Each structure stands twice: as C-alpha cells, then as structure tokens.
Amino acid sequence: MEEFYHQKFETPAFKRPVEPEFKILRKEVNKIVKQNSRKLEHIIRIKIILFPALYVVTYGLLLTAGGNPVIFYTAYFLLGVFLLLNFLNLIHDAVHGVLFRRNERWNKLYLYFFDLLGANSYIWKIRHIKLHHMFPNIRNWDSDFEHSPLVRVFPESPARKIHRYQHIYLPFLYPFYLFNWLLIRDFKDFFQKDRIVRKVTKIPRREYLKLFLFKALFFSYILIIPKFVLGVSWWMVLGGFLVMMFTASVLSLVVLLSPHANVDSNFPEPDESGNITNTWFLHQLICTNDVSNNNFFIRFFMGSFNYHIAHHLFPDIHHSLYPKVTEVLEKFCREHDLPYRKQSLTRSLLNHYLLLKKNAFTENIFEETM
Description:
By secondary structure, this protein is mostly helical. The protein contains 15 helices and 4 strands. The strands form 2 sheets. It has a two-stranded parallel ribbon with strand order 1-2. Helix 9 crosses helix 10 (234-257). The relative contact order is 0.15.
C-alpha cells in the first residue's frame, strides 16, 4: 500500500496562460455576485430549512404508515426524491463551500448530512473537487467516469466484446446506480489501492471509522427501524428500499449524464508528459454543455443543474446565481467566438445514448479479452 502512495503520476497539465478573455468574464461575474448575493440569501435560507424537513417529515410518514402499502411505498418513493433534492440544492453547494457564505465550518459540518443519506462525504469531496472539477472528461482522472468494466465511455478505453451491447443493457442497469455508489463504490475507494482517488489523497484512519459508522446508521433507519416499528415483512422493507434507490438513481442520472457524457462532448487525451492541448478555460467549455430547460421547478427544486458550464467555470458561487451568470456567459462566448453548447434535456440524454452506441464497437474488438 505504501509503495502505491509513492508512485509518480503524470498529473494532467493544461496549456498556459489562460485566455485573457476569462479574466474579463471573471470580472463581470464578480459584479453579478456582488449585486445579487444578498437578494438571493432568503432563497438559500428557505432551502436549508425546507429540503431536510421534507426528508425528515417523509420518514415520519413512513413510520406511521401502519403497514398501509400505498403510504408505505409512496413514502419510500418520496425519500428517493428528497434525497436527490437535498444533494442538488444543499450538499453540493456545501462541498464547494458556498452554502454558508461566511462560515466554512458550517459547510463542513453540513456534509455530515450527506453521510446520513448513505454516501461518504469525505471520499465524494475528493472525487468531486480534486478529480471531476479539476479534470472533467479526462480518462483515468475524472472519477465521475470510474465505472465498471461493463461501461465504455472514453473512446480510448480498452474495448471488450460485451461493450458492443452497452447501449442496450446499460439503460436497464442505470436504476442500480446508487446501489453501486452506496454499497460498492465507496468501499472500493477505501480499500482498493488502484482507485483514482489514491492519486490525490491518502485516506486518514478516522475516515474508515466514519465510513462504517454512517453506513450502519443509514441502513438502520432506512431498513431495520421501519421493519420493527411497523412489523412488516423484510420483503416489504426491501421492496420500499428498492423503490427509494431506483427513484433517486434515475433522477440522479438525468442530472449527471446530460452535461458531460454525450457524443458532442470532447474527451481529451493527455500526451506522455500529461500535457493537455487546451487551456483550463477552453477545456471546460468543450467538455461541458448546458441544458436549455429553464423554469422555476428546475431552478428551485433541481438546484439549477442545467446551468452546468457556469458551475464548472465558477464553482465558488451559489447555484441560485447560475441563471444570471449564464446570461452573461452565453453572450460573452458569442462575442468572443468561444464554444458554448446548450441542448434540451431530451437531446442531451439522446446524445448520451449515442455516445454509448458510438463506443460500443471498435475494429480490434475481437482481439480484446472479456
């Protein structure tokens, strides 16, 4: 294990310097933040109270279901929905340190809520901040694409015979996304030394204790307590848990797949020295797209996930500012002849399917082993 930590990795390096246009854009965005931050603080406060309350109240509804299958399964369904809403609106901003603008300690404390939802906040913060945001769409560095051998997202990844059918079988496996995250992926990151996270961190011992403690708490209140409080069968409880996880998985992937993993996005390959041909600014533009849907529901309940380019360029601002920032960003890219991509949700999901289909077959596929 220690030998692995001392291995040298060619960390991807972007072309320098960043375009001077980005500095101009940054100044315009800073003005927007200064002008609008206080106006939007009430929205942030409402969300901090509302979404955790919805999760807790729904859990209370579950425990008072009295074995009524309609109330029972509806409660589990809503727990899946509210799990995602808390992640998009609160936990995601907390990990970027912008949920509580003037108190970094509160941002860190709030991440324990994510642990109570079944995930591991420590390892996810590493994945999201140090890997996905730093190196989006870069093979062996973007942890969002560190999946099973059943998936081939990068054109340069090894091809297996089974990949020729990935566009057919993967949509049926996607509802198990959070099962993999909670039950497999977190543990792999902690106990397998060849995981991507090991390139950027050495996990402290106390985090291993936290991993098992919060996993046990999550499965205790989501499975064991309903079983004994309501006196229902294990099959009924497991069925409710499946409903919760399927709901949260499908909704999560609608959000996660649309901005990066589609046929129109770039997947740059570093050279032998780890150099990327583009600057960090241009890299974010060619590897990310916005989703054109713009309505109150997406802005308020879905954490403005569709304004994804603004988030990647300016992860230090709250998501409530993304719509105003994107107005400036879209105009700025047009005026400076910079790439800016915006697609409908349907189009972006279709493009994800086309990416799977495009990478499903290569000329040398029969030379690859299973």
